[in-house]
Amino acid sequence: MSNRKLSDQIIEDILSQIGSGQLGEGSIVPSELTLCTTYKVTRGVVREAIRSLDAKGFIRVSQGMGTIVAPVHQWNVLDPVWVSINSDVSLYDYLQATREMIEPEIAALAAKNATQENIKELQELLDLQINCMDGPDTVADIDVAWHAALSRATQNPILNNMHNSMANLSIKIRIEAAKLPEAIEHASYWHEEIMKAVKSGNSDLAKAAMRMHMNQVKADLHIALQTV
Hints:
- The protein has a two-stranded antiparallel sheet.
- By secondary structure, it is mostly helical.
- It has ten helices and two strands; from the N terminus they run αααββααααααα.
- The radius of gyration is 21 Å and the shape is elongated.
- It has helices spanning 3-20, 32-39, 43-55, 80-85, 89-113, 116-131, 136-152, 157-177, 181-200, 203-227; strands at residues 59-62, 66-69.
- β1 and β2 form a beta hairpin.
- The protein folds into two domains: 3-74, Winged helix-like DNA-binding domain superfamily/Winged helix DNA-binding domain (Arc Repressor Mutant, subunit A, Orthogonal Bundle); 87-227, Four Helix Bundle (Hemerythrin (Met), subunit A).
- Residues 4-72 form the HTH gntR-type domain.
- This is HTH gntR-type domain-containing protein.
- GO terms for molecular function: DNA binding; DNA-binding transcription factor activity.
- Keywords: DNA-binding, Transcription, Transcription regulation.
- InterPro entries: GntR_C, TF_FadR/GntR_C, Tscrpt_reg_HTH_GntR, WH-like_DNA-bd_sf, WH_DNA-bd_sf.
């Protein structure tokens, strides 16, 4: 196993302990020697992991006190590794609220700026979604790809980059939602309605359809989170 993978394992384990409360705010993180012994790695590997966690704001290296868990307000809770490990319902609420603000504007702008190539890509992904017989992971990937294609159709690279960052953070809960047959049906229906508006160049209709879609997503996520 490479040094990089070994340091990643240490990072994931410490983040998991922080998320579970085993290592609370102000708690002392195991020493370099302890981590070296536990993971059977060199100090270089441990230091790489500690530097990464420090940069993410989860720990703080203090002279005389060792390494401690940093105050919560310093944590980068949008870090993809943190999100993948810790299913914090409040984080998903924040992500969903942000999507509700941004996605309707993306749909409206896509209706104005989408090219025929954009529309073709959206239709192909919608067809894949409707006919997909694979598991939740694939369904969620197609859903993310469809929204990413819609974002690209805005022709706004900054907005597209913001959208992709949110999508990467929400993939875990989208997989959970994709386990609900009704959620898949709802998504396909609203994607098709949004597509119609984008094809016709109707920004107001595209925005309204996306708002309805986001309302349905919120309801479906509420059910999905209860089963996680």
